[in-house]
Amino acid sequence: xIGPSNLLSGISRQIRVHGHNINILKTPSEFxxxxxxxxxxxxxxxxxxxxxxxxxxxxxxxVNNLVSSIRQHECxxxxxxxxxxxxxxxxIHLKDLRAIGAVRLYQTPYWSRTxxxxxGLIGELLGVHHMKYYLFDDNVVxxxxxxxxxxxxxxxxxxxxxxxxxxxxxxxxxxxxxxxSAKVSWDFGRFNKSHWATKGNLKExxxxxxxxxxxTPIEKEASLRNLGPSxxxxxxxxxxxxxxxxxxxxxxxxxxxxxSADSSQNFTLSSGYFNPSKRxxxxxxxxxxxxxxxxxxxxxxxxxxxxxxxxxxxxxxxLSGLRTLxxxxxxxxxxxxxxxxxxxxxxxxANNFTIxxxxxxxxxxxxxxxxxxxxxxxxxxxxxxxxxxxKESLRDYSRDIQKSYRPISALGLPxxxxxx
Length: 420
What we know:
The structure is a single chain. 32% of the residues lie in helices and 22% in strands. The chain is of the alpha+beta class. Strands 1, 11, 12, 13, 14, 15, 17, 18, 19 and 20 form a ten-stranded mixed beta sheet that branches. The longest helix is centred in the N-terminal third of the chain and has 17 residues, at 57-73. The protein is globular.
């Protein structure tokens, strides 16, 4: 059996930390309070990457904290949200971010050569900026949750707070690469023209894609030469997925881990929106390991009771899960059902490692959206126990999947599958 560190080292760079510098939060309210606290203590730098920023008191409090840090300490602050989701109803008004200055509205190249520039669901269909990380000085919060009040209440997600200057340096570098060097973003205040409009910028972005792989040297960046303490008992592997640049580190990691596993191994995988790609289906079919998958019940799906066609989306995910269960012999499928709560947790667990971040391990994540995840491999026994407790806390509210989709959903799934 090949260990996860050996497999992941061929996909991403390894950053070492001490296990006691990783704090796993349990509840949405802890996530909210941690963001407010860390944003109020910023002295040097902050990076915010989210699908969108909401308009609630917490979100405004975080933005106000960052504005204060800029005025008091001249902090280096940068915010990146999606061009379409970040500006439609429910997202923070751009004028409220004006004081931060360095705000990027990320747009995929799929829309850039069209004249469609209106906020809304249509603009989100072909792909969005879906990365979620929140960096404050040397503290990095990795999650699948957006900065919005619904994620601070009864929506189950995952939240890791990692204290590591090396990881923070690394993410700052790629934040800058993603928002500037790839020329994908729209600068705040000048978002009437896409950077993708010229062939020269598109070619430049393709040339930069190789930097995301572990084999491309970036040692010219002095801050990236030291990737953590040599005696660190825990390794972190940052992974990106940017389909239009052919960067698929998350897909590659899942495939390697599942295909290389033997019959003695057990995995638990969770997704808020489970509609696996063909690549993941093949990995699940051929793995020798036992794989338990947790997805939301129809009532716990984020689209439950959505208006018009969105109301059928939970049914389609339910149907997709049942079809996966039928085709993959080593898979058990469970659904998270907790009264009044929705389910948004995504990740992979095994004995001594986990993967967490923004990816739902579905077709959108594989082919359309920009994603960020981190794989964590640890020899720290206390951290192993906490990871197991986190996984079991999700299992406590899970049951065998129920066949509860409406039959009409089967007609829509073939047409909508690549967008789910």
